[in-house]
Write a structure and sequence with these properties.
Elements (H helix, E strand, L loop, with lengths): L3 H4 L1 H22 L8 E4 L12 E8 L9 E3 L14 E3 L23 E2 L4 E9 L2 E8 L6 H10 L8 E6 L23 H20 L2 E11 L7 E2 L9 E9 L5 E8 L12 E2 L3 H11 L13 E6 L6 E2 L5 E2 L6 E2 L4 H19 L5 E2 L5 E11 L2 H8 L11 E11 L2 E5 L3 E2 L1 H4 L29 E5 L8 E2 L30 H16 L3
Parallel strand pairs: 5-13, 7-8, 12-14, 21-23, 22-24
Antiparallel strand pairs: 1-19, 2-6, 2-9, 3-4, 6-7, 9-11, 9-18, 10-15, 11-12, 16-17, 19-20, 20-21
Length: about 525
């Protein structure tokens, strides 16, 4: 008798191909670190702990790529975009027949770096007291997916005694692509895996350095309102801003020596706009430099010294300075178009505001020194292209039955409480002001209420975005609007949904954040 596989070779071949496709899809959807979960609460509410002096340490690492290891190119028309049809050319240094460049993230996907204006950083700050050690890392990056941060955590030795590491990206649109979205081609793999490995390694080094430098500090906290005019624009209705500037200064015990300043405010880091070809940390560079080294007259400020760390706030909505005219502190000049002069003016204005706030009458000495941390793995509903990309392992790899795995944290440093969200939160969810406009896609009352900040209990409350992940915009469900008729009488949809995980994502993150806050508070 002739075996079936010999009698039906075409069917047999098709069966093998189907099995291979299924195996491939399962492998891609499985994702890295499939069973990784975090469920941390330390110390537990009511647990008796011995509280001593708060200890702080800082570690800094340069994460600027070495451009001598990449191909060079000629931008024939000076538009900062690589376009063969416009006469752009490149020099194939390694002879592999393809253009190996540092692809700058943000805006278009064909913007190769032409040089370096200022360094990019991984900056880590460690806190220790009452048997708890946490490290916060801020990166000059557009965003990094959750599995990369899991990998960094797994590289850290248990001997360091770290209970938790929180990562956040500044959402810098003038840094290398660390997400695989802006690397020239969505079909062929032009993504620079080597650069992401460099970032991971430097993060580990910065964390180790921060923990090794832990020493007792005194702490000064302060907050102020950042004016809208000259600083930020909300490019989508309703107009709601994350305009609270949160400031902390950590001073070596018994001295006036600044160990670190920590700042949080919400605004896209994209002052240079889309025509810039130089790697830079944008206004964050001038802000940090101004705090550390001072800003000269006229209307400058003194140097605080130490290391300055900027953590991104709520930038959904969209918080940007692209359409803002930024004044120079001399009162004479102003800048509207994307330029380094505009980035410098914005950064130095923020530095002056930060230093003056920390040295002003409303600043206070922190009395409470206790450290605590709560962290929880969450699963965020995904739809549309991001859902498909996750299933195929292309963007935010790992498919959990229609959800993406992510994380929220609540970290308490004495009188400073930090809530983290894994993407770009609309300020109306954090601060209040969610609306249900006529014409939106879902005829429902606001879902993401009460505002998250109303449930935080610190004297200084920070909502840090792009933390431990980058899932894009968290759009309130009642404001979701991709189908006509459009809300607010608009003739077309406002920008946002195209870069969102879906209409139910914001509600899920809001719900999980409230639950973790309640748990951290012992409720």
């Amino acid at each position: 008798m002739i075996p079936a596989c010999r009698r039906h070779p075409i069917l047999s071949t098709l069966a093998v191909l189907v099995l291979l496709v299924v195996f491939f899809l399962v492998h891609r959807a499985w994702g890295p670190y499939r069973f990784y979960r975090v469920d941390l609460l330390k110390p537990k509410p009511g647990e008796k702990v011995e509280v001593g002096n708060l200890e702080v340490g800082v570690g800094l690492r340069d994460i600027t790529p070495d451009l001598s290891k990449y191909d060079t190119w000629t931008d024939a028309d000076g538009d900062a975009e690589y376009d063969l049809e416009k006469g752009d050319t490149y020099s194939d240094r390694n002879g592999n027949g393809r253009f190996d460049a540092v692809w700058i993230a943000g805006f278009g996907n064909n913007r190769p770096a032409q040089g370096i204006h200022d360094p990019l950083w991984a900056r880590a700050i460690a806190f220790r007291n009452n048997g708890v050690t946490v490290v916060l890392v801020t990166l000059d990056s557009i965003g990094i997916f959750h599995e990369a941060f899991i990998n960094i955590r797994k590289r850290l030795s248990p001997s360091l005694g770290i209970d938790h590491v929180m990562f956040s990206c500044t959402h810098n649109h003038e840094a290398p692509d660390t997400m695989g979205i802006w690397s020239y081609s969505v079909i062929w793999d032009y993504f620079d895996h080597g650069y992401l490995e460099l970032v991971k390694g430097r993060c580990v080094e910065a964390i180790i350095e921060a923990v090794s430098k832990l020493a007792p500090v005194d702490t000064v906290l302060a907050q102020t309102e950042v004016p809208v005019e000259g600083f930020v624009d909300d490019s989508r209705l309703p107009l709601v801003y994350d305009n609270t500037l949160c400031c902390a200064r950590f001073i070596r015990k018994g001295t006036d020596e600044t160990v670190a300043t920590m700042l949080e405010w919400g605004n896209h880091v994209e002052t240079l706009a889309s025509r810039n070809g130089l790697l830079t940390s944008d206004f964050a560079h001038y802000w940090r430099e101004g705090v550390e080294k001072g800003v000269p007259d006229p209307n400058g400020c003194a140097a605080l010294g130490g290391a300055c760390l900027y953590f991104q706030g709520q930038v959904g909505g969209l918080m940007t300075q692209l359409h803002t005219t930024v004044p120079h502190r001399d009162g004479q000049q102003s800048f509207r178009e994307g330029s380094f002069e505009k980035a410098q003016a914005l950064g130095e204005n923020l530095a002056v505001l930060s230093v003056n706030t920390l040295q002003g009458d409303t600043a206070w000495r922190m009395e409470d020194q206790k450290v605590s941390v709560a962290a929880k793995t969450i699963f965020v509903p995904m739809s549309g292209l991001m859902h498909l990309a996750g299933f195929l392992g292309l963007v935010h790899p790992g498919w959990f039955w229609g959800h993406g795995r992510s994380e929220v944290n609540v970290i308490r440093i004495g009188e400073m409480e930090i809530l983290t969200v894994p993407g770009e939160l609309y300020p109306e969810i954090g601060n209040g002001g969610v609306e249900a406009p006529e014409g939106a896609d879902f005829a429902c009352a606001p879902v993401e209420v009460p505002p998250l900040r109303s449930k935080m209990t610190g004297k200084l409350n920070l909502i840090v975005g792009l933390a431990n992940d980058e899932l894009g915009y968290f759009v309130p469900k009642s404001q979701w609007d991709v189908k006509p008729p459009f809300a607010y009488g608009k003739k077309k949809a406002q920008y946002g949904e195209v870069n969102s995980p879906g209409p139910d994502a914001a509600a899920a993150v809001h719900r999980e954040a409230l639950a973790l806050l309640a748990r951290a508070h012992g409720e």
